[in-house]
Fold this protein.
Amino acid sequence: MDTRKRSRNDPIVVYAAGSLRDAMGDLAWTFASATDTLVRTAYGFSGVLRARIEAGEKVDLFASADQGHPARLLAQGLATGVATFARNALSLVALPRVGLTAANLLDRLLDRDLVIGVFPPVDDPLGDYTRAAFLRAESLCPGSLRVLDEKTRIIDRPPVGGSTSAGSAVVESLLERGEIDLHICYRSTAHKRLLPALPELVVVDLPPGLQVRVHYALALMRDAHDTTGAFSDFILSSEGQSRLARHGFVPVLRAMRETASASP
């Protein structure tokens, strides 16, 4: 147990998935302005951040791009609560030279002459979601998994920090230099990060047969700052969810309605 005294003037320390950088920054600034509570954020691969917490780094709130890493911290007793706070989806992006369309998406994925840039599984939930999409491709077209594995390039881990959007910047550079031809990313990243940087980029959502549901979850850490619960509640509030939607995420309340309407 951490016995260090925490002052109300101390900042709330938040570790968050890199894909949340703009959204979490917005949420943190809005909360701080309303409560005079400083929120300090750091971003990186969710799996790497979870490992740092397990190694003893003091964090108040962990916002992951999946549900598994927060659940692991809860099971270990390092977190006292977990809540899903947003959803996302996967898109395939490419520069115009690739000729990507919704109709030829699977053909382009399986084209042996085109390289797919992928973030590393386990370290980064996007890598795990991409792997799940590859497995769906295998079920649709046997033999696809081997082809996809052979043409995949693992993108190096971006640094953990709060100043730049390292992951999307790396993807932009690799696409522009022709080192990768295709990249599966979050829909929010494609539209809010990559398209503004590369306006000519072609963005196509994965079709239902390949699409993977993406769930983001919060973990409230043990011995968290007294006001961390209030920040977590703000993220889950109607205003917090509205701000997440502006950054391209699907609010959990809307996701619940969509799920309910899709049920028989």
